[in-house]
């Protein structure tokens, strides 16, 4: 089968690799129908952050189940499934707590494991990892494409909004105008935020942020950005969504939080990837 292989900075090739097969009884083989390129893929693509030449890439995908191992119970051949950005066993201490991204047997697709930018994939821990898409979406290509961001960015933005405790009427800060930040903006509005301040740098994305519910946009960063937001909010916000993942953005998020407020921290990029021993699955 063909798959996208990282060969070094600015060099990703479509190459022939062995067909996906069942290796463990909990595996499924999925024919990939839709896949995304994520901002997380761009870090290694640009040569920022460790990624080993020869690794597959891609962690946002959905497709049709072609085969299941003997221990797979919740999926069958022909099911359309959507995957989160990582796989998890569903049984370890962390999975039991709902922290499947910290699963002791888990990992990100790509990053030395099977990748999602491929014709097919060996999906590990298929029962715990994959979600069956309701058959009602069949035949609606626009809807299928629209649900694809649930694989990562839409879920991540929503998670940031929920974990930062957004409540109706709140003032909310969203740091980052990438896909996760934009999805966080949508989520904050959906949860009833009254004022949503988005920090970013790209005019096109900030226009989209306004369409998605941002009431204010701030383009300055670092200390200046913090000062500006503190002034706008008269002391910071109760809910801050950190959707970038650099040290600068994390510091900004903490410094913009009102006393007693909460940061929903979902950014996960080069700074974290380089601390792999501390955050094994991020
Ligand atoms: Zn992603």
Secondary structure blueprint with pairings:
Elements: E1 2-8, E2 11-16, E3 28-36, H1 39-45, E4 60-68, E5 80-82, E6 86-87, H2 93-96, E7 107-108, E8 120-123, H3 126-129, E9 131-132, H4 141-147, H5 153-163, E10 171-175, H6 179-190, E11 195-199, H7 203-211, E12 216-218, H8 222-233, E13 237-242, H9 247-255, E14 257-265, H10 270-273
Parallel strand pairs: 10-11, 10-13, 11-12, 13-14
Antiparallel strand pairs: 1-2, 3-4, 3-8, 4-5, 5-9, 6-7
Helix pairs in contact: 5-6, 8-9
The structure holds zinc ion.
Residues 38, 40, 59-60, 85, 152 line the site of zinc ion.
What is the global morphology? Answer: globular
Order of strands in the sheet with most strands:
8-3-4-5-9
Determine the N-to-C terminus distance.
Answer: 27 Å
List the total number of helices.
Answer: 10
Query: Main β-sheet: number of strands, strand sense, barrel status?
Result: 5 strands, antiparallel
Named once each, the bound ligands are: zinc ion
Helix share, percent: 25-40%
Order of helices and strands: EEEHEEEHEEHEHHEHEHEHEHEH
- Gyration radius from CA atoms, angstroms: 19 Å
